[in-house]
Amino acid sequence: MSVLKNYINGQWVSSKSDEVLDVHNPATQEVIAKIPFGKATATDMNDAIDLAHEAYLEWKNVPTMRRVQPLFKLKTLLEDHKDEIAKLITEECGKTFGESLGEIQRAIENVEVACGTYVMSQSEFSENIATGIDEFMIRQPLGVCGCITPFNFPGMIPFWFLPYAIATGNAFVIKPSEKVPMTMQYVFELIDKKLDLPKGLLSIVHGGKEAVDAMLQSPKVKAISFVGSTNVAKYIYSEGAKYGKRVQAQGGAKNPVVIMPDADVEMTTKIIIDSVYGCAGQRCLAASVIIPTGDDKGMFKEALVEAAKLRTTGYGLDEGVHMGPVITQESKTRIEGLIQKGVDEGANLLVDGRNTKVSGFEKGNFVAPTILEGVPTNGELIETEIFGPVMSLVDFNKLDDTIEFINKGRYGNMACIFTQDGLSARKFRSEVMAGNVGINIGVAAPVAQFPFSGWKESFFGDLHGQGRHAIEFFTQTKVVIERWPKNWSRQF
Q1: 297 with 455: CB under 8 angstroms?
Q2: What is the DSSP string of 60-103?
Q3: CA-CA distance, 173 to 341, in Å (whole number)?
Q4: How far is CA 15 from CA 38, 144, 224, in A?
Q5: Residue 180, C-beta contacts closer than 8 angstroms, at least 6 positions apart
Q6: Cα dihedral 153, 156, 160, 164 sign
Q7: Scanning 38, 169, 274, 479, which has the fewest C-beta atoms within 10 Å of its C-beta?
Q8: Nearest residue to 481 via CA among 127, 121, 141
Q9: pLDDT score of 491 more than 60
Q10: Confidence band for 121, pLDDT divided at 50, 70 and 90
Q11: End-to-end CA distance of the chain
Q12: pLDDT tens for each residue of 372-384
């Protein structure tokens, strides 16, 4: 099995590193790819950045209407190859084929929005601010922009950034997660064959921390986009700022969902189950802490337990499977350890998904749906992003107490409420400290024209991915004040 190559200066080139890392199918443990790894990948990254800078110098002067034309072709490419890309996502990431198809659709929607960059980046103009003087603001690209993406959405998350970066006149270098390199590798193969872009404008470099540090330290990289854990997000943000870069760093989450007594049981249960266990809980908007309120919580608890037990865990390409494996053996061990930690802290295990075996896939990293009730609100399980199919039931009676509990948490990615009462919904969305809020929604994922928001330790930076925020992030403003009097002698 050959080692994946980097895409640099419009060519597929071998890494300068002799060290390699195996990529495994999480359902079978089969080695499905090898990528370059180790110190020498820093040299690969610097080569890509140098050549990307040369491409930027050409690309920045291309009119915006011409810069977006390749995006229309890119949209068609993704649509035409949706099934092939989705299959790759399932094989290397583990999610079901249907979830992978949905992921690609989200990527396509971002390309569609980025096609409107000309409108979203239009200049602001004010004529005659004084006699014979006009003032206006223009947006100009930054230069080379770097992107570091996580394992859980290898097909979608790069497109929170890539189409906007090149549409606004920048060059773009991506380092995909070393756990899931094949999806973007395939997308770049399509781009290489079908899109007419300047050599070096788009690059993909494989590796680990050494490649990331090279990106952070290069003076030619002007902006960094990152999605991953909070600890790494803090590192990316602080290191990027140290080297004078613009940074957007999406971190972890612990997403609470409040169920008011008047919520519809059937609808609420279905939506919450999909939110908690979709993508095996490995998404930054997965519901994690479920909070039924009021005096009679039993009907919601019983409905959730019954629905969780009906969820089928297995290989993502098999029919009838609701949930695939988690990404690695290490993740499985960590998740099962946190479940035990919850029990040790006094929680009651209602549904135990540990030690799950799937026939024909005995080596897979499977953790079945799990539910714990009575989880202490000050315990480790509440403070930790589990990133797995684990539901923690927490007990509160009043909405005020629930909001206070949510706002004390370290994360602020998403919070949702299920209710038929408009006043409760309004109070919740107004007071809860989270960047994405759902009302009778289990996964409050913004569509492409809205920013993927995040508060507190779920995001570091000012401008988020997607939509107009992305346009602003990948451009810098220049205000021009100019005088063109008809008769100079009359002005003085």
Answers
A1: no
A2: TTS-HHHHTHHHHHHHHHHHHTHHHHHHHHHHHH---HHHHHHH
A3: 40
A4: 10, 21, 22
A5: 23, 89, 92, 93, 151, 154, 327
A6: positive
A7: 479
A8: 127
A9: no
A10: confident
A11: 77
A12: 999 999 999 999 9
What is the C-alpha to C-alpha distance for residues 460 and 458, in angstroms, rounded to an integer?
7
Other Cβ atoms closer than 10 A to 54: 17
Please determine, for residue 208, whether its predicted confidence score (pLDDT) is greater than 90: yes
Q: Residue for token digits 């915006």?
A: 64
For 300, counting Cβ atoms within 10 Å of its Cβ (0-12 exposed, 13-18 middle, 19+ buried), the class is buried
Which pLDDT score is estimated for 323?
98
| String of DSSP letters for 407-472 | HHSSEESEEEEE-S-HHHHHHHHHH---SEEEES-SS-PPPTTS----EETTEESSS-SSHHHHHH
123 has pLDDT over 80: no
- The SS3 assignment for 281 reads helix
Determine how β-strand 390-393 pairs with β-strand 436-439. Answer: unpaired
- By C-alpha distance, which of 473, 432, 472 is closest to 456? 432
Average pLDDT over residues 120-143: 82
Rounded CA-CA distance 146/241 in Å is: 14
Q: Secondary structure of 157-195 in the HEC alphabet?
A: HHHHCHHHHHHCCCEEEEECCCCCCHHHHHHHHHHHHHC
Distance of alpha carbon 428 from alpha carbon 408, whole angstroms = 15
348-351 β-sheet, strand order:
348-351, 370-373, 390-393, 287-292, 255-259, 414-418, 436-439
CA dist 377 → 32, 204, 403 (Å): 41, 43, 13
Cβ neighbours of residue 306 under 8 Å, at least 6 residues apart?
none
Token duo for residue 89: 């996502």
Q: How far is CA 91 from the centre of its chain?
A: 19
Query: Which residue(s) pair with 3 in the sheet?
Result: 34
Half-sphere CA count of 205, side-chain side, radius 13 A: 37
Q: Which of 445, 444, 441 is nearest to 268 (CA)?
A: 441
3-state secondary structure of 329: helix
Cα 314 to chain centroid distance, Å, stands at 24
Distance between CA atoms of 171 and 197, rounded to whole angstroms? Answer: 11
Predicted TM-score of the model (pTM): 0.95
Q: What is the token pair recorded at 221?
A: 């990289």
Contacts of 129 (CB under 8 A, 6+ apart): 135, 481
Name the β-bridge partners of 174.
Answer: 147, 204
From 322, 390, 369, select the one nearest 98 (Cα to Cα).
322
- Report the percentage of the chain scoring pLDDT > 90: 91
Reduce the DSSP state of residue 328 to 3 states and report it.
coil
Active site residues: 284
On whether the CB atoms of residues 435 and 460 are closer than 8 A, the answer is no
